[in-house]
C-alpha cells in the first residue's frame, strides 16, 4: 500500500511541477507550488506510517506552517507587483536578466 | 480493503483535480480544483492514522490558505483568464518531458524499493494516549526549537505581508475641505443617483431615470455595465441599452488608462 | 724566484691598514650626508682624508721595509663577508702597497689641485666626496686579499668613475659618456665575475693565498679559461681592445678626474689584476699570457694612432693613455721581468700622465675651458710653469733618455723583444708614433701662432694648482731611474709577484733602444715640420682616409653601434612588442575568449522565472536518474 | 607568549581600529596606522633577537586545532627563511605607510580623486597581517588561506587607489592569482588525501609522498601557483600592469613582499614536499628562470613608463631567485633567500622614489622628465642609489645575494653532480643588461638639461627622507655585512636541502684534494 501512496505523491508532485512550468498566472503558479507541497506531505505521512513513528507527521505539520507563511508573503508580493504592473503574469516580471 | 477502495477513489479524484488545476483556463476553477485535491489528501491522511493532520489540512489549507488565494484572486480579477498561447519557445514541450520523466523516475525508484508492510503509527499514538497528544509531546520536546523558529517565521511572514501590502502615501491626505472643493469642481456636487430609480424594473444594473424621464448614465455601476455588455444582457429599451453601453465604454476607457503603462505583448 | 708565503698579521700600522680605505670612505660619507652645511670646508676634509690615507700607506710601507723580504706579504683579517665563502681581509704586500702609495700619493696631489680647479663650481663638495669614494674603492681593489673584495673595489671604482664622468649631469654628452663608461665596464665585469665563479668552483676558495697555492694543479684548460675571463675584466677597466671605446668619451668629466681616474690609477687596475694573478693564471708562455701581450700591443698601436688625429687635448691624452696601458699590458704578459717594468711604467706613467692631464687642465683653466688645440698656440710665455711641467711630462712619455718613461718603456720593449721580435718591433713603432703625437700636442699648444678665441685671456694658474704640477714633474724626471736602476723595484716586488732568476741589468745602448730613439726623433721632427713651423689651421682640414680613421677612433664606436647597439635596440623593440602582443596577447586572448563565451552564455538568463524553474526540474530529474543508476550498479 | 599570533593580531586589531575612526580623521588614521606598524616592527625585532639560528629548525611553534575533523591547524612557526621574510615585511610596512602619506589624499600632481584615507591605511595593515601569516604558517591549509586572503586587500588597493587603468590591472592581478591559487588548492587537497595522515601540518607531510608520478603532478600544482605569484616567465604579464597602476606604496608591498611568497613557496613546499619531482623539473625551471632574467631585462630596457620598467626589472630578479632556489646548492639557495630580502629593500626604495617623482610631476613617463638632478639632488641621489642597488652594485646588499646565487648555480657541477654552469653564465649577462636599463632610465630622468616641467620640483622633504634613509642604510649595511642575515638563513637552507637529500653547506672540493684522492 505504501508504494501506492508514494506513487500517487510522485504523480501529484510532477503534475504540480509541470503546472509551475506552464502556467503564467502567478496565483495559479502558487497553487501548483502548494500542490507540490501537499504531495510531499502525503509522502511524509505515508513514511510516518511505514516507519511507525510520528516524526513524518510532524514534518508535514511544519511544512504546512511554512507553506502558510510562504503563501502569505508570496501573495503579498503578487499584490504589490500587480499594483505597479497591473499584471499577475510571471513572465512580465522579467527585468532580472542579462 | 476499505482503505484500498478509499485510496483508489481518492487517487483518481485527486489526480484528475490536479490535472484540472494545471489545465483549466480560469483561475477560480484552478482554486476549486486545488481545494478538491486538498480535501482528498485530508481524507488520505485520516486513512493513514493522521487525524490531527487531516484536520489541520482542512482548517489551515482548505480553510485559510484557499481563502487567501480566493481573496487575492478577487483583487486581481476573478474572471481574468490566462491566454493559453505559450510565449517561451519550447517551454511547454520540455516541461512535459521533464515532468513525465521525473514522475517516471520517482515511480521507478519507489517501485524498485523493497518496502515491507507498514509498521503503523497506532503504537506510537497509544503510548501518548492519542495522535494529538503524541504529536504535542514531540513538538514540545524534541522539536521545540524548530517549533519556536516556526512561530518566529510566521510572525515575520505576517509582518512581511503587511509591509509589502502597505502603500506609501505619496501626497498628503486630502482634508475635508479639499474633498469638498474637488466635489464642486467636478461639476456634480450631489450624490450620484441610485440605479433603478423610476425604472420599470428595480434591478441594480438598470439605469435610473431622471425626473424629466431621460436616462442617467451616472446611475449605473460601470463594472456591472461592462459585464452586461459582454454577456449581451441588454434591456430591450434602446435608451436604457445606450446608457449601459456608454457606462461600459467608460469602464473600458478607465481600464485602459490604468493599464496604459503596461506593455502590450 | 717564487712569490713568498702569505703570513697572517696583526698589530702595528699594517694591522690598521683598513684605515686607508675607511678614512676616505668616511670622508665621502660625511660630505654626501652633510649636504650644504659642509660646503665651506668640504674640499679641505676631502684633502685631509686623502692625505691621512697616504700617511697610513707610507707608515705601512715603512713597516714593511723593516721586514725581511720573505716576511713582506702580510694578510690581515677584517670580517666574515659571506660565511663559508668569503672572509674579507687585506693583503699588504709589496705590490699592493706600491699601488696604495701611488693611489693615495698622486690622488692627494690631484685632490689639492682640484681645490683650485673646481673653485668656481657649485658642486665642489660633491666632487670631493666622489674623489674620496674613488680613492676608497681603488684601495679596496688593490688591498683586498681575495677576488670578491677585488671585485667590489673593481665595481666601486666603476661607480666613482661613473659619478665623476657624469659630474656635469646637465650636459647630455657627459651623462651619456658616464653611462657608456659604466656599461662597457660591466661587459668586462661580466668576464671577471665568471672568472671568479670558475676560480671558486675550481679551487674552493676565492682568497689569493689558497688559490695561488694550488693553482698549478688545476687543468690547463681551466687555467686558460680563468685567465681569459680575468683578461676580459682587465680589458674593460683598462680600456684595452675591444672594450676601449669608453675612455675617450670619459674625458667629459672634469680634468682632475681624467688625471686621477682615467690616467693614473683606475685604468691601471687591469694591469694590477693581471700582475696579481700572473703567476697563477698568466704564466709565461701560456695561451692566456700570449693573449695578454697581443691585446697590449694592439691597444698600444690603436691608442697611439687615435692620439695622432685628436684636436681635443684631453682626447689626445686619452688616446695616449690607452697606448701606454697597452705597454703595461704587454709587460704584464711577459712574466716576472715584464711585471717589474709594467709596474714601473705604471708608476711613472701615473706621475707623468697625471702631470700632463693636470697641465692640460691648467691650460683649459687659462683658456676658458677650451679644449681644441687648434685654438691654442704660443702659450709658452704666458703659462711658464704649466709649460715647463708639461714639457717635462712630454719628455718623460716619449722616452727621452734618463727621464722616467725612458727606463720603464724601454724595459718593456726590450723584454718584449726578448720574447718575440714581432711584438717588440710593434712596440718600437708605437713609441715612434708616441713621439709624433705628443710633439704635435706640445707644438700646437705652446709654440706657433696665437689662434685663441677672441675672449680668451690666458693666465697662469694659482699655486694650489701649479705646486702639484711641480711635484709630479719632479717625479716624472727621477722616478723611473730610481725604480729601474739598481733593481730597486724588482727587488721590492719579488716577494709578491716572483722575481727573475738573475737580476735585471738595464742596458743603455741596445738595438731596440736606439731604434726607438731614432723613431721618436723622426716623429718629433715630423710634428715640428707640420705643427711647429707651419701654420696650423684653426678649423681642422678634412684630412685623408687615415686621418678620418684615426679621428673616428678607428671606427670603434661605429662598430659597437652597428654590431651591438642597433641590433640591441631592435631586439628590445621586438621583445617589448612580443611581450605586449605575444605573451600578454595570449593572456588577454584567453580572457577575451572566456569573456566572449560568457557573453553568449548569459543569454540563457532570460529573466523568465519559468525557464529557470524548468532547468531546476531537469536538474532534479538528472540527479534522480543518476542516483537510480548508481544505486543499481 | 604566542609571539607569532600576536604579530598577526596586532595589525588586524590596528586595521579595525583605523577603519572605525570617524570620517574625516585622516591624519589620525595615518598616525594610528604608523604607530601600529611600528609596534609590529618592534615585536618582530624582539622575535628576531630571541631566535637562535643554531637551535631547532622551527621556533615559536604554536599549534591549535582549527578544523579538527580535517586535521586543519592554526599552526604557526618560523625557521630562518620565514623569519627574515617576516622581518622584511615588518620593516617595509611602516616605511610604506610613511611614503603613502598622501597617496589617498588626492593631492598628487596628476590630480587623482580624493579617496577614503582610513580605508587605505586599514587595508595596508590587513595586508601586513596576511603577509606575516603566510610566512609563519606551518599548516599548509592555513598557508593557502593566507595565500589567497592576501589578494583581497591588495585587490582593493590597486582597484580603488590606483592609476587610470586600475580596474583592468586589479582584475588581471586577481584572476591570475586566483587561477594559480586554485591549482594549488587542488594540489593541497590531493596532498592531504594521498598522504592520508589526516593533517595539513607541513613538518608531518615532508617525505610522505614517494610515488614519482604523484610527486610530479602535485609539484606542478604548487609550482604553477608560485610561478604565477613570483612571477616567472611566461606568467609575468600581470605584474607590470599591477605594479604600474598600483599606488607606489602598494607596488612596493606587491613586488617586495607578496611576490616573495611565490619564491618562498618554491623553496619551502615545492622542494621539500616533492624532492624528486623538483629535481626532475629543475632543468625546465632553470630555463624559465634564465629566460626570465634576460627577457625581463631586455623588455625593461624598452619601457617608457618608470613603474613598468621597475616591474620588469623585478621579473628579471625573480628569475635569479628562482634559479637560486632550483640550483639546489647551499650557496645558491641561501643567496636566493637573501635575494628575496634584499630585493624587497632595493625595489622598495626604487618604487618609492619613483613614486615621489610621479607625485611631483604627475606622470610616470620617463620622457616627461629630465635634469631632475639639478633641481632635486637628494631625490635624484636616492633614485640613483636605489637604481644601483637594482643593478647589484657591489657594496650594496643585492650584490651579495646575486653573487651567491650565480656562484652557487655555477658551482653546482661540483656540488650536486649536475652542470648548470651554462645557466649561470647566461644569467650573468643580466648584470650587463641591468646596467643598461637602470642607468639609461637614470640618465633620462635625472641627467641632461632640466626639463621645463620639472623646473620647480621640490627636493625630498623631512618625511620622505625618513622613508628613504632606513632603506638605504639597510641596503648599504647589508651590502658590507650580510653575515647576520646569512647566519639566520644558512641553517634553515641546509635543513631544507637536507630534506631534498642534497649535500650540506660546503665549499667545492679544492682541486688539490681531488687530485690527492685520485692518486
Automatic annotation (TrEMBL), chain A:
<keyword id="KW-0813">Transport</keyword>
<feature type="transmembrane region" description="Helical">
    <location>
        <begin position="27"/>
        <end position="47"/>
    </location>
</feature>
<protein>
    <recommendedName>
        <fullName>NADH-quinone oxidoreductase subunit K</fullName>
        <ecNumber>7.1.1.-</ecNumber>
    </recommendedName>
</protein>
<keyword id="KW-1133">Transmembrane helix</keyword>
<dbReference type="GO" id="GO:0042773">
    <property type="term" value="P:ATP synthesis coupled electron transport"/>
</dbReference>
<dbReference type="InterPro" id="IPR039428">
    <property type="entry name" value="NUOK/Mnh_C1-like"/>
</dbReference>
<dbReference type="Pfam" id="PF00420">
    <property type="entry name" value="Oxidored_q2"/>
</dbReference>
<dbReference type="GO" id="GO:0048038">
    <property type="term" value="F:quinone binding"/>
</dbReference>
<dbReference type="GO" id="GO:0050136">
    <property type="term" value="F:NADH dehydrogenase (quinone) (non-electrogenic) activity"/>
</dbReference>
<comment type="similarity">
    <text>Belongs to the complex I subunit 4L family.</text>
</comment>
<keyword id="KW-0520">NAD</keyword>
<dbReference type="InterPro" id="IPR001133">
    <property type="entry name" value="NADH_UbQ_OxRdtase_chain4L/K"/>
</dbReference>
TrEMBL record, chain B:
<keyword id="KW-1133">Transmembrane helix</keyword>
<feature type="transmembrane region" description="Helical">
    <location>
        <begin position="93"/>
        <end position="115"/>
    </location>
</feature>
<keyword id="KW-0812">Transmembrane</keyword>
<keyword id="KW-0874">Quinone</keyword>
<feature type="transmembrane region" description="Helical">
    <location>
        <begin position="6"/>
        <end position="23"/>
    </location>
</feature>
<feature type="transmembrane region" description="Helical">
    <location>
        <begin position="144"/>
        <end position="165"/>
    </location>
</feature>
<keyword id="KW-0472">Membrane</keyword>
<dbReference type="InterPro" id="IPR001457">
    <property type="entry name" value="NADH_UbQ/plastoQ_OxRdtase_su6"/>
</dbReference>
<comment type="function">
    <text>NDH-1 shuttles electrons from NADH, via FMN and iron-sulfur (Fe-S) centers, to quinones in the respiratory chain. Couples the redox reaction to proton translocation (for every two electrons transferred, four hydrogen ions are translocated across the cytoplasmic membrane), and thus conserves the redox energy in a proton gradient.</text>
</comment>
<protein>
    <recommendedName>
        <fullName>NADH-quinone oxidoreductase subunit J</fullName>
        <ecNumber>7.1.1.-</ecNumber>
    </recommendedName>
</protein>
<dbReference type="GO" id="GO:0005886">
    <property type="term" value="C:plasma membrane"/>
</dbReference>
<feature type="transmembrane region" description="Helical">
    <location>
        <begin position="28"/>
        <end position="46"/>
    </location>
</feature>
Automatic annotation (TrEMBL), chain C:
<dbReference type="GO" id="GO:0008137">
    <property type="term" value="F:NADH dehydrogenase (ubiquinone) activity"/>
</dbReference>
<feature type="transmembrane region" description="Helical">
    <location>
        <begin position="463"/>
        <end position="486"/>
    </location>
</feature>
<feature type="transmembrane region" description="Helical">
    <location>
        <begin position="190"/>
        <end position="208"/>
    </location>
</feature>
<dbReference type="Pfam" id="PF00361">
    <property type="entry name" value="Proton_antipo_M"/>
</dbReference>
<dbReference type="Pfam" id="PF00662">
    <property type="entry name" value="Proton_antipo_N"/>
</dbReference>
<protein>
    <submittedName>
        <fullName>NADH-quinone oxidoreductase subunit L</fullName>
    </submittedName>
</protein>
<dbReference type="GO" id="GO:0042773">
    <property type="term" value="P:ATP synthesis coupled electron transport"/>
</dbReference>
<dbReference type="GO" id="GO:0012505">
    <property type="term" value="C:endomembrane system"/>
</dbReference>
<feature type="transmembrane region" description="Helical">
    <location>
        <begin position="281"/>
        <end position="306"/>
    </location>
</feature>
<feature type="transmembrane region" description="Helical">
    <location>
        <begin position="41"/>
        <end position="62"/>
    </location>
</feature>
<feature type="transmembrane region" description="Helical">
    <location>
        <begin position="95"/>
        <end position="115"/>
    </location>
</feature>
<feature type="transmembrane region" description="Helical">
    <location>
        <begin position="506"/>
        <end position="528"/>
    </location>
</feature>
From TrEMBL, chain D:
<comment type="similarity">
    <text>Belongs to the complex I subunit 4 family.</text>
</comment>
<dbReference type="GO" id="GO:0048039">
    <property type="term" value="F:ubiquinone binding"/>
</dbReference>
<feature type="transmembrane region" description="Helical">
    <location>
        <begin position="215"/>
        <end position="235"/>
    </location>
</feature>
<feature type="transmembrane region" description="Helical">
    <location>
        <begin position="281"/>
        <end position="302"/>
    </location>
</feature>
<keyword id="KW-0812">Transmembrane</keyword>
<dbReference type="GO" id="GO:0003954">
    <property type="term" value="F:NADH dehydrogenase activity"/>
</dbReference>
<feature type="transmembrane region" description="Helical">
    <location>
        <begin position="72"/>
        <end position="99"/>
    </location>
</feature>
<feature type="transmembrane region" description="Helical">
    <location>
        <begin position="143"/>
        <end position="161"/>
    </location>
</feature>
<dbReference type="InterPro" id="IPR001750">
    <property type="entry name" value="ND/Mrp_TM"/>
</dbReference>
<feature type="domain" description="NADH:quinone oxidoreductase/Mrp antiporter transmembrane">
    <location>
        <begin position="137"/>
        <end position="424"/>
    </location>
</feature>
<dbReference type="GO" id="GO:0015990">
    <property type="term" value="P:electron transport coupled proton transport"/>
</dbReference>
<feature type="transmembrane region" description="Helical">
    <location>
        <begin position="378"/>
        <end position="400"/>
    </location>
</feature>
Amino acid at each position: 500500500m505504501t508504494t501506492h501512496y508514494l506513487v500517487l505523491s510522485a504523480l501529484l508532485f510532477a503534475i504540480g511541477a509541470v503546472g509551475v512550468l506552464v502556467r503564467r498566472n502567478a496565483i495559479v503558479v502558487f497553487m501548483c507550488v502548494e500542490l507540490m507541497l501537499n504531495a510531499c506531505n502525503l509522502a511524509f505521512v505515508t513514511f510516518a506510517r511505514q516507519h511507525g513513528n510520528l516524526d513524518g507527521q510532524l514534518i508535514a505539520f511544519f511544512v504546512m506552517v511554512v507553506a502558510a507563511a510562504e503563501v502569505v508573503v508570496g501573495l503579498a508580493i503578487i499584490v504589490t507587483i500587480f499594483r505597479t504592473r497591473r499584471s499577475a503574469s510571471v513572465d512580465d516580471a522579467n527585468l532580472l536578466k542579462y | 480493503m476499505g482503505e484500498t477502495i478509499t485510496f483508489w477513489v481518492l487517487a483518481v479524484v485527486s489526480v484528475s483535480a490536479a490535472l484540472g488545476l494545471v489545465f483549466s483556463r480560469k483561475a477560480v476553477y484552478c482554486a476549486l480544483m486545488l481545494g478538491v485535491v486538498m480535501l482528498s489528501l485530508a481524507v488520505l491522511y485520516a486513512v493513514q492514522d493522521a487525524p490531527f493532520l487531516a484536520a489541520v489540512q482542512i482548517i489551515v489549507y482548505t480553510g485559510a490558505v484557499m481563502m487567501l488565494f480566493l481573496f487575492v484572486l478577487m483583487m486581481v480579477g476573478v474572471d481574468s483568464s490566462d491566454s493559453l498561447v505559450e510565449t517561451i519557445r519550447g517551454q511547454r514541450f520540455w516541461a512535459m518531458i521533464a515532468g513525465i520523466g521525473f514522475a517516471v523516475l520517482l515511480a521507478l525508484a519507489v517501485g524498485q524499493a523493497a518496502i515491507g508492510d507498514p509498521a503503523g503509527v497506532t503504537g506510537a499514538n497509544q503510548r501518548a494516549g492519542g495522535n494529538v497528544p503524541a504529536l504535542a509531546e514531540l513538538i514540545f520536546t524534541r522539536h521545540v526549537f524548530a517549533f519556536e523558529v516556526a512561530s518566529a517565521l510566521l510572525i515575520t511572514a505576517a509582518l512581511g505581508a503587511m509591509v509589502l501590502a502597505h502603500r506609501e502615501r505619496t501626497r498628503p491626505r486630502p482634508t475635508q475641505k479639499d474633498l469638498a472643493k474637488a466635489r464642486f469642481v467636478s461639476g456634480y456636487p450631489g450624490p450620484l443617483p441610485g440605479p433603478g430609480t423610476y425604472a420599470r424594473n428595480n434591478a441594480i444594473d438598470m439605469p435610473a431615470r431622471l425626473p424629466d424621464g431621460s436616462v442617467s448614465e451616472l446611475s449605473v455601476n460601470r463594472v456591472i455595465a461592462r459585464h452586461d455588455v459582454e454577456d449581451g444582457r441588454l434591456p430591450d429599451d434602446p435608451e436604457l441599452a445606450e446608457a449601459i453601453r456608454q457606462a461600459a465604454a467608460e469602464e473600458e476607457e478607465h481600464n485602459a488608462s490604468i493599464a496604459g503603462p503596461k506593455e502590450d505583448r | 724566484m717564487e712569490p713568498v708565503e702569505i703570513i697572517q698579521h696583526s698589530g702595528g700600522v699594517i694591522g690598521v691598514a683598513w684605515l686607508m680605505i675607511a678614512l676616505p670612505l668616511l670622508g665621502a660619507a660625511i660630505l654626501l650626508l652633510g649636504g650644504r652645511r659642509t660646503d665651506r670646508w668640504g674640499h679641505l676634509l676631502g684633502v685631509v682624508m686623502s692625505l691621512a690615507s697616504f700617511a697610513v700607506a707610507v707608515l705601512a710601507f715603512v713597516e714593511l721595509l723593516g721586514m725581511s723580504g720573505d716576511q713582506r706579504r702580510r694578510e690581515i683579517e677584517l670580517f666574515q663577508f659571506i660565511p663559508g665563502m668569503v672572509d674579507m681581509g687585506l693583503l699588504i704586500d709589496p705590490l699592493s702597497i706600491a699601488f696604495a702609495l701611488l693611489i693615495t700619493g698622486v690622488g692627494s696631489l690631484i685632490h689639492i689641485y682640484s681645490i683650485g680647479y673646481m673653485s668656481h663650481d657649485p658642486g665642489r663638495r660633491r666632487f670631493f666626496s666622489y674623489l674620496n669614494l674613488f680613492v676608497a674603492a681603488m684601495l679596496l681593489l688593490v688591498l683586498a686579499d681575495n677576488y670578491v673584495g677585488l671585485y667590489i673595489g673593481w665595481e666601486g671604482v666603476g661607480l666613482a668613475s661613473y659619478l665623476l664622468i657624469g659630474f656635469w649631469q646637465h650636459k647630455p654628452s657627459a651623462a651619456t659618456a658616464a653611462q657608456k663608461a659604466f656599461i662597457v665596464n660591466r661587459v668586462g665585469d661580466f668576464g671577471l665575475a665568471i672568472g671568479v665563479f670558475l676560480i671558486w668552483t675550481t679551487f674552493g676558495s676565492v682568497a689569493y693565498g689558497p688559490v695561488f697555492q694550488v693553482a698549478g694543479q688545476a687543468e690547463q684548460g681551466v687555467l686558460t679559461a680563468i685567465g681569459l675571463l680575468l683578461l676580459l675584466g682587465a680589458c674593460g677597466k683598462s680600456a684595452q681592445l675591444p672594450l676601449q671605446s669608453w675612455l675617450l668619451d670619459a674625458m667629459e668629466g672634469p680634468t682632475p678626474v681624467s688625471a686621477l681616474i682615467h690616467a693614473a690609477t683606475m685604468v691601471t687596475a687591469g694591469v694590477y689584476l693581471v700582475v696579481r694573478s700572473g703567476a697563477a693564471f698568466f704564466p709565461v708562455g701560456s695561451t692566456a699570457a700570449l693573449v695578454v701581450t697581443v691585446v697590449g700591443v694592439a691597444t698600444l698601436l690603436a691608442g697611439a694612432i687615435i692620439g695622432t688625429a685628436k684636436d681635443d687635448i684631453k682626447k689626445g691624452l686619452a688616446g695616449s693613455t690607452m697606448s701606454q696601458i697597452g705597454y703595461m699590458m704587454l709587460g704584464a704578459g711577459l712574466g716576472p721581468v715584464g711585471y717589474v717594468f709594467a709596474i714601473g711604467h705604471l708608476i711613472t706613467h701615473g706621475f707623468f700622465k697625471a702631470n700632463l692631464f693636470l697641465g692640460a687642465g691648467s691650460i683649459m683653466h687659462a683658456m676658458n675651458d677650451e679644449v681644441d688645440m687648434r685654438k691654442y698656440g704660443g702659450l709658452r710665455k704666458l703659462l711658464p710653469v704649466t709649460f715647463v711641467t708639461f714639457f717635462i711630462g712630454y719628455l718623460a712619455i716619449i722616452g727621452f733618455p734618463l727621464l722616467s718613461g725612458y727606463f720603464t718603456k724601454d724595459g718593456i720593449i726590450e723584454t718584449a723583444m726578448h720574447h718575440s721580435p714581432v711584438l717588440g718591433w710593434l712596440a718600437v713603432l708605437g713609441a715612434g708614433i708616441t713621439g709624433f703625437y705628443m710633439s704635435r700636442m706640445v707644438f700646437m699648444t705652446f709654440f706657433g701662432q696665437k689662434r685663441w678665441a677672441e675672449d680668451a685671456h690666458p693666465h697662469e694658474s694659482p699655486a694650489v694648482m701649479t705646486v702639484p704640477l711641480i711635484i709630479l714633474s719632479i717625479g716624472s724626471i727621477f722616478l723611473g731611474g730610481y725604480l729601474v736602476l739598481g733593481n730597486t723595484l724588482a727587488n721590492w716586488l719579488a716577494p709578491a709577484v716572483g722575481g727573475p732568476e738573475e737580476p735585471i741589468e738595464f742596458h743603455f745602448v741596445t738595438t731596440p733602444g736606439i731604434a726607438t730613439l731614432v723613431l721618436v726623433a723622426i716623429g718629433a721632427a715630423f710634428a715640428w715640420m707640420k705643427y711647429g713651423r707651419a701654420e696650423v689651421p684653426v678649423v681642422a682640414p678634412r684630412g685623408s682616409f687615415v686621418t678620418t680613421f684615426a679621428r673616428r677612433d678607428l671606427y670603434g664606436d661605429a662598430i659597437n653601434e652597428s654590431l651591438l647597439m642597433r641590433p640591441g635596440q631592435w631586439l628590445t623593440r621586438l621583445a617589448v612588442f612580443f611581450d605586449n602582443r605575444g605573451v600578454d596577447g595570449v593572456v588577454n586572448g584567453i580572457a577575451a575568449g572566456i569573456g566572449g563565451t560568457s557573453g553568449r552564455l548569459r543569454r540563457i538568463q532570460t529573466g523568465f522565472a519559468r525557464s529557470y524553474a524548468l532547468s531546476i526540474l531537469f536538474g532534479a530529474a538528472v540527479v534522480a536518474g543518476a542516483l537510480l543508476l548508481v544505486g543499481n550498479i | 607568549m604566542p609571539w607569532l599570533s600576536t604579530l598577526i593580531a596586532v595589525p588586524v586589531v590596528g586595521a579595525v581600529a583605523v577603519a572605525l575612526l570617524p570620517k574625516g580623521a585622516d591624519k589620525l588614521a595615518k598616525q594610528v596606522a604608523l604607530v601600529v606598524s611600528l609596534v609590529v616592527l618592534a615585536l618582530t625585532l624582539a622575535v628576531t633577537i630571541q631566535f637562535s639560528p643554531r637551535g631547532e629548525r622551527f621556533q615559536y611553534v604554536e599549534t591549535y586545532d582549527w578544523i579538527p575533523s580535517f586535521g586543519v591547524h592554526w599552526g604557526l612557526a618560523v625557521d630562518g627563511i620565514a623569519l627574515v621574510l617576516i622581518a622584511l615585511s615588518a620593516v617595509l610596512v611602516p616605511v610604506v605607510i610613511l611614503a603613502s602619506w598622501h597617496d589617498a589624499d588626492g593631492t598628487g600632481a596628476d590630480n587623482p580623486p580624493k579617496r577614503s584615507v582610513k580605508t587605505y591605511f586599514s587595508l595596508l595593515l590587513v595586508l601586513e597581517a596576511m603577509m606575516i601569516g603566510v610566512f609563519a604558517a606551518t599548516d599548509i591549509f592555513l598557508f593557502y588561506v593566507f595565500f589567497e586572503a592576501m589578494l583581497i586587500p591588495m585587490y582593493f588597493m590597486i582597484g580603488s587607489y590606483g592609476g587610470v587603468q586600475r580596474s583592468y590591472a586589479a582584475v588581471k592581478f586577481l584572476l591570475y592569482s586566483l587561477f594559480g591559487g586554485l591549482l594549488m588548492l587542488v594540489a593541497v587537497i590531493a596532498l592531504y588525501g594521498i598522504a592520508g595522515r589526516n593533517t595539513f601540518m607541513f613538518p608531518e607531510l615532508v617525505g610522505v609522498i614517494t610515488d614519482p608520478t604523484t610527486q610530479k603532478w602535485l609539484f606542478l600544482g604548487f609550482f604553477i601557483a608560485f610561478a604565477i605569484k613570483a612571477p616567472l616567465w611566461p606568467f609575468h604579464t600581470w605584474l607590470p600592469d599591477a605594479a604600474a597602476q598600483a599606488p607606489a606604496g602598494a607596488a612596493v608591498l606587491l613586488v617586495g613582499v607578496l611576490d616573495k611568497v611565490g619564491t618562498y613557496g618554491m623553496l619551502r613546499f615545492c622542494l621539500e614536499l616533492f624532492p624528486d619531482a623538483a629535481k626532475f623539473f629543475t632543468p625546465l625551471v632553470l630555463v624559465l628562470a634564465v629566460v626570465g632574467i634576460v627577457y625581463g631585462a631586455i623588455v625593461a630596457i624598452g619601457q617608457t613608463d618608470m613603474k613598468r620598467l621597475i616591474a620588469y626589472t623585478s621579473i628579471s630578479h625573480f628569475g635569479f631567485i628562482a634559479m637560486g632556489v632550483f640550483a639546489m646548492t647551499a650557496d645558491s639557495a641561501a643567496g636566493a633567500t637573501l635575494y628575496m630580502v634584499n630585493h624587497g629593500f632595493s625595489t622598495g626604495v626604487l618604487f618609492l622614489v619613483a613614486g615621489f617623482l610621479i607625485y611631483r610631476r604627475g606622470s610616470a613617463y620617463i620622457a616627461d622628465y629630465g635634469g631632475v638632478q639639478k633641481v632635486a639632488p637628494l631625490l635624484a641621489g636616492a633614485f640613483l642609489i636605489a637604481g644601483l642597488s637594482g643593478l647589484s652594485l657591489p657594496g650594496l646588499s643585492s650584490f651579495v645575494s646575486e653573487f651567491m646565487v650565480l656562484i652557487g648555480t655555477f658551482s653546482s657541477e661540483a656540488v650536486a653532480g649536475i652542470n648548470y654552469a651554462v645557466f649561470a653564465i647566461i644569467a650573468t649577462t643580466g648584470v650587463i643588461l641591468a646596467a643598461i636599463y637602470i642607468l639609461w632610465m637614470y640618465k633620462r630622468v635625472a641627467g641632461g638639461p632640466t626639463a621645463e616641467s620639472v623646473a620647480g620640483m621640490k627636493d625630498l622633504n623631512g618625511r620622505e627622507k625618513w622613508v628613504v634613509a632606513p632603506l638605504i642604510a639597510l641596503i648599504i649595511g647589508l651590502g658590507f655585512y650580510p653575515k647576520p642575515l646569512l647566519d639566520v638563513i644558512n641553517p634553515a637552507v641546509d635543513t631544507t636541502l637536507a630534506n631534498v637529500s642534497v649535500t650540506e653547506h660546503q665549499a667545492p672540493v679544492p682541486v688539490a684534494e681531488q687530485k690527492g684522492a685520485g692518486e
